[in-house]
Amino acid sequence: MPSTNEINARKTAEKADAFMKPSLTRWKPDYDRAVDLYAEAARLYRASGDYAAATIVEEKSAEASLLLTNYWDAGKTFERACESAVKKIPMDGAAVLALAERAAEAYASANRVQVGAEAMSRASRLVEDSDLFTSTALLRRSLEIFEEDEKDLYAGEHHRRLCAQLTRTGEYADAAEACLKYAESCSRAGQSNSLAKAYLSAIVALLYSGDGIGAQSTYADVCEIPDFEKSEERETAYKLLNAYRDADVEAIKSTVAQSSCLRFLDVAFTRLAAKLPNVAHDVARVAAEMGGQGKAGDTTDEDADDLC
Hints:
Elements: H1 4-19, H2 31-48, H3 51-67, H4 71-87, H5 93-109, H6 113-127, H7 132-148, H8 156-168, H9 172-189, H10 192-208, H11 212-222, H12 226-229, H13 232-245, H14 249-258, H15 260-263, H16 267-274, H17 283-289, H18 301-305
Helix pairs in contact: 1-2, 2-3, 3-4, 4-5, 4-6, 5-6, 5-7, 6-7, 7-8, 8-9, 9-10, 10-11, 10-13, 10-16, 11-13, 13-14
């Protein structure tokens, strides 16, 4: 049997629907009244635990605000609809993504593009424990908006979250790629310390995944970038790669233990570094693929110079 809140919510939503179109006594829609009634219906549906219905009426309320060209309120309401959609059982990740996108678009129409990017990131947090795929998609879109709006200065936290999230799912190549994009963002924002950490994090992720060739190639691509070239992070990456080319497990562990900059990476990458070399991968095989001798001490100065 429906609860009192559900009955009242349904009646209120029906009244709101009526105000969205003309009637015999009203020559045009009353969108303002509809917005208020939809908001009340959403409150009652949430109180009754019917988050699917709450999502529907909140979306209708947002659409009414769009018709009033009240884009800021529309963005806020689409965000609330997104929050209700997350609580719906079963949750529909595609619906959450679509509502967050509509919120961002509304904020953009209100000339608040950055707020839209932050809304996508907030939605990502809502689902990161239940749907990492959707959470990652939301974060990627958030970062695209930051870049499009040239707001790299404010994107760092969101880049770091994406990088860490990809390590949680074991997508180390994607995590490395995300780190490289973060470094590019840091370059545009003039954040040299974060840039160096991002490049080292990418190399750590690749080495942990057993992709010595990828780590070596990444280092060669970035080692002469000014903000990385003279950094402690570059020196640590160089030592790690040399140790891997030599298949020298003790040298790898020693580099990790002695490097202070590895301890100051974001936690996800500090943890990966502490586990180098990853026992799931044969170091000798990785060394051979990198063009090393596969035996400690056999890498020549000429071989090492090839790194950069």
